[in-house]
Automatic annotation (TrEMBL):
UniProt cross-references to SUPFAM superfamilies, sorted A to Z: Nucleotide-diphospho-sugar transferases
Pfam families attached to this UniProt entry: GMPPB_C (PF25087), NTP_transferase (PF00483)
Stored CDD domains: NTP_transferase
Lineage summary: Archaea, Methanobacteriati, Methanobacteriota, Archaeoglobi, Archaeoglobales
Identification of the protein by name: NDP-sugar synthase
Domain Mannose-1-phosphate guanyltransferase C-terminal stretches: 250-328
Domain Nucleotidyl transferase: 2-233
Length: 332
């Protein structure tokens, strides 16, 4: 079996942050989102392929430098050009004859994959990971499965009136026959996402569902869900060269990267990620992600994301996303 991590999307719901950063490479504690996925797959010994795009090739090459992965680069640089998930997966998998484990590159889950892989090895038929989101309104955001025993008898992408709360969570084990059927699917005029492929597939093959009920799953599709996942995965870490004056306070857990300077009664945390070389003076930051080279002075930040090289003074930010290189201030 080979493993394919699908990381070629442009994450438009997280713009402007993801205009310059691939969502799988966003920080999640001291690691990135895709680090957590890679570490779940690595113990199985599968060959790991990461499918991404030309726009973020350099970033993924840097990430992959010390990892045992193969990068496949889709020749696109913007949302309008992308192949779509099924076509991209078909292009990758058409080059080999193995079974394939497919995982979305923005997938965050606390459970291990051992039982899922074991069940696939027993049945050798397409197996789809499911998670009970427990709320019918929430279920409208996802692909929703109906089970008869273990078999999926219906799979509807973002239904207006969900018939269950079992959501597909972007983890698929496909046997060789099903992998080859990706080509049949993409040759037709069909919606190009994996959920719709599953809907098409269940009319042609037995498709099984595997419900994870022993952990948590996060769909990092918007800023709220990203910040929510950050709170869960944040373990306390402050780099040795961080400068914190005696008037400032750190409330655990936080991650503070190298070269940060914190001064003048600033309060950092809880649940704050501070990127490299930031300068923070007389500011309070909690439940937020601050990227590299940001300057904050007399600013309160809560449940917000501030992109790199911003300078913000004399403001209160709540539930905000600030794009890179912004300079914002309010008169004192």
């Amino acid at each position: 079996m080979k493993a394919v991590i699908m990381a070629g999307g442009y994450a438009t719901r997280l713009w402007p942050i993801t205009k310059t950063k691939a969502k799988p490479l966003l920080p999640l504690g001291k690691k990135t989102i895709i680090d957590h996925i890679y570490e779940k797959i690595k113990p199985f010994g599968f060959d790991i392929i990461v499918s991404t795009n030309l726009r973020f090739r350099d970033d993924f090459e840097q990430w992959a430098d010390d990892k045992d992965v193969e990068l496949v680069i889709e020749n696109t640089t913007k949302e309008e050009e992308k192949l779509g998930a099924v076509r991209a997966l078909h292009e990758v998998t058409s080059t080999f004859d193995d079974e394939v484990l497919v995982i979305a590159g923005d997938n965050i889950f606390s459970f291990g994959l051992d039982d899922f892989i074991t069940r696939y090895e027993e049945i050798k038929k397409p197996l789809i990971a499911l998670y009970d989101v427990g709320d019918y309104d929430l279920a409208r955001r996802y692909g929703i499965a109906i089970l008869n025993g273990e078999k999926i008898v219906s799979f509807e992408e973002k239904p207006e009136k969900p018939k269950s709360t079992l959501a597909g969570i972007g983890i698929y084990a496909l046997d060789r026959e099903t992998k080859d059927m990706l080509g049949d699917y993409v040759r037709g005029e069909r919606k190009d996402n994996l959920g719709d492929f599953i809907s098409w597939l269940i009319d042609r093959r037995e498709v099984y569902g595997f419900v994870f009920d022993n952990g948590n799953w996060y769909d990092v599709g918007n800023p709220d869900s990203y910040l929510g996942a950050m709170k869960v995965y944040l373990t306390h870490s402050v780099s040795e060269d961080v400068e914190i004056d005696r008037t400032s306070k750190i409330i655990e857990p936080v991650v503070i990267e190298e070269g940060v300077k914190i001064r003048r009664r600033s309060i950092i945390g809880p649940y704050a990620y501070i990127g490299r070389n930031c300068e923070i003076e007389a500011s309070d930051i909690s439940d937020s992600v601050i990227f590299d080279d940001v300057i904050l002075r007399k600013t309160k930040v809560w449940r917000s994301i501030i992109d790199e090289k911003c300078e913000i003074r004399n403001l209160e930010l709540s539930g905000s996303i600030i794009g890179g290189h912004a300079k914002i201030q309010r008169g004192e």
